[in-house]
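Checked the freezer inventory, then went back to the computational side. Two predictions to log before the end of the day. The first one is the construct we discussed on Monday; recording sequence and tokens without edits.
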Amino acid sequence: MLNKILHDNQLISLCYVSRSRIDEIKALEEVSDIAIFASSNNVQLSVTGGLLYTVAHFAQVLEGPQKQVEELMSKIEKDPRHYDVTTVDMRPIKRRKFPNWAMAYSGPSPFLDRHIKPLLSPFVTTTQGEELIDSLQERLLRFITGETAGEDAQPTPKLHLVGGAGPIETSPGQEDDRPLI
């Protein structure tokens, strides 16, 4: 895990990528179950985020108080349904990118796999990594909100979101500076 960068109540965004162990035949049901469980669990933790599954890989953005995100990430790293779990970014944030979703998930997207795979390469420079992470987070947000187009559009018909849990409560003394949408 990355070193502690802030105090426990500071909002952070953490992005990780991993390789899937889920059997392709069971994937739709199993990953949907993951998203449903995460949605319920994340509400209790004041964590928001988005999950992307590409058959070969997972990518996930988690947002919330540092302590809760780090504890959740510790559990995620031990999940046997994936391996090579790599935290590719952890930074302080003032606003959540996924304020309306305890866990947004829109179904499998093999077309986005080429944006995840390079993040697992040991040959990516820091600058390239930062650009890849920013691009991946933006694509994940667009994909989940149904705004994908062009090269990343997927042929599967419907977008289904899991985890629109309403406002996320903040801890006493913690400022909620999410945008009012």
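The second is the one RB wanted added to the comparison set:
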Amino acid sequence: MATDEQANSDESESLSTAEALQQWRAAERLVAVARRGRVAAEAAAAAAEDAARAATATADAAKAALASMALAETSAAKTAAASKLVVLSTRADLADAETEQAMSEVNEVEAQSQYRAATTRAGEKR
């Protein structure tokens, strides 16, 4: 029974230079998309953290206000809680984006390796 490495090796040896280059370029595009996703997720996480801090500050200010501000306090506390949920969700998205980027980079390295193997084989056939 062939292992995954043997299957990948057989596949990479059967790739032409053009196919290997095409795979490498596709992997590079995926890495670029993953990087942009990670950057967007980082920006969203930072904005969500700022919103959580602002909502908490609003909640603190409402606590110091007159009794008539009780409704504002409740609203601010709910906003803070919602912002915390956004922060947690965005951090999870960031972790997913980082994982996707890492996997894309692994795929790019593999595609690059296959391209180099294909060019070496092409050179040896001359």
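For RB: The helical segments are 4-14, 17-64, 70-125. Residues 18-119 form one domain. Let me know if you want it refolded.
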